[in-house]
Amino acid sequence: MLQSIKQRYWLWFVLSSELIITALHYLTSAHLLPYHSIYRSLYYVPVGVAAVIWGRWAGIGLALFTALVYLPHAHWLDAHSASSWLDNGLEMATLIVVAALVGTLAEREQQAHSRAESLHVYIHDVLASLPVGVATIEQQQLKLQNPTAQILLQPTPTLAQLPQTNGYSEIQVNQIALAVRRSDLHNLQGQPIGAVLVFEDIREQQAIAERIRQAERMAALGQLAGGLAHEARNPLGVVRATSQLLGTKLAQQPNLASYTSVINSEVDRLDRLISSLLDYAHPQALQRQPLAINQLLSEFVAACQPLAAEYSVELQLTSAKAELWVEADRDAIWQILLNLLLNALQASQTGQIIQLESLVAAQQLEIRIQDQGKGIDPAIRERIFDPFFTTRDDGTGMGLALVARSVAEHGGTISFEPGPDCGTLARLRLPLASQGAKQ
């Protein structure tokens, strides 16, 4: 719309200028040659404007029209004054040549401008489609060049937070792990005038790498655990039988009999550890079936109320409004929830609350278990899924290792993070079942 208004404005300017200049020629006396010379020179203005606005042929056309209108008057001047008709004819020829030159230059400038605009749109579309962020540093100012960079770098970091040397590096910006590739930005003369930074969110890659490392550790430890468990169970059976026999012999000597009870207790603990090792080394095949998670959680909380009462802790359940379905092994999911709840109970104090919640997050089922305990020490957070790692004197260190394996077999993820106010928030995510799988 604005362009159309400008075009009409210049058209009226050109036509009115031509009309006014021509009228001045015909209305001015032939003996006033200086005035006619000035009027003749004024023709360059509308002709030049036409050549710039509409191109070479429009300028040439207007110049020819001007010559056709002016030359009869020039012939009349030649007859009534000392004006040279040849001089006027050469002036008109010059006007045509100037129109051609100006129009040609204007067309080339417009073509260059059009190519520049096309290149700008092309580069903008390419940058906008990139899954990585692109930014530049010029004159100590950071400029975000595409939408991904605006998302990754909001709020905008300071230059001191960014890499100062060229090459690859990994940084933490706004609690987001980013891979950064820095290179020089040059001008037309090849001189460096700044830097180009390419940012990539590597949180997912880091999570995948950590899961791979954990899976490799689990596989190696699983093979070792299986062998050790089989070798240790038989000697433990002998120790148990001997201890029980010794306890019978020492029944009349309470001071000595207490030692046999300690032996039996520790043997039972080792037996539980061996059972966990065997489960870890030789997991049973999953018996997948459609599970209504809200219903399962209701049954789970009801069954665990007596256990929570032993710890003087209250359980609260918040279920999603609509029923959520997954394809999973019911017993395995129950065991996962029980392990997570036991950890939350052991971290809680008398009178505290443990909240369980089901919802949809990132197109997956998410089950949250939130306690109000002291939380997990950041120094050990990376090791909590390692087999045999425990912070309790009576723990085996296999509970969360089995949870991690079972969750992975279901195609899900498990993570622990600080709670909104205090304590620890466990997030269990599983793929939602399709509509067909529910029926």
Describe this structure in words.
By secondary structure, the protein is α+β, with helices and mostly antiparallel strands. The protein folds into four domains: 2-127, no CATH class; 132-201; 214-281; 288-438, Histidine kinase-like ATPase, C-terminal domain (Heat Shock Protein 90, 2-Layer Sandwich), CATH 3.30.565. Helices cover 57% and strands 19% of the residues. It has twelve helices and twelve strands. It starts with a helix and ends with a helix. Residues 435-439 have low confidence and may be disordered.
CATH 4th-level superfamily of the largest domain: Histidine kinase-like ATPase, C-terminal domain
Distance between the termini: 59 Å
CATH architecture of the largest domain: 2-Layer Sandwich
SS elements, strand count: 12
Mean pLDDT: 82
How would the blueprint of this fold be written?
Layout: H1 2-27, H2 33-42, H3 44-54, H4 56-80, H5 85-129, E1 133-138, E2 141-144, H6 147-152, E3 167-173, E4 176-186, E5 192-201, H7 203-249, H8 254-281, E6 288-292, H9 293-310, E7 314-318, E8 325-329, H10 330-347, E9 353-361, E10 364-370, H11 399-409, E11 413-418, E12 424-431, H12 435-438
Parallel strand pairs: 7-9
Antiparallel strand pairs: 1-2, 1-5, 3-4, 4-5, 6-8, 9-10, 10-12, 11-12
Helix pairs in contact: 1-2, 1-3, 1-4, 3-4, 3-5, 4-5, 7-8, 9-10, 10-11
